[in-house]
Amino acid sequence: MIFDAQGGYLRQFERLVGIMAALRDPEHGCPWDIAQDYASIAPYTIEEAHEVADAIARQAWDELPGELGDLALQVIYHAQMAREDGHFDIADVLGAINAKMVARHPHVFGDQSRDKSPEQQTADWEAIKAAERRAAGKSERVGVLDGVALGLPALTRAIKLQNRAARVGFDWPATDQVLDKITEEAAELVEARDDLGPEELAEEYGDLLFVMVNLGRHLGLDPEAALRAANAKFTRRFNYIEAELETRGKVPSDSDLAEMDALWDQAKAAGVK
Question: How much is the pLDDT for 123?
Answer without folding.
Answer: 75
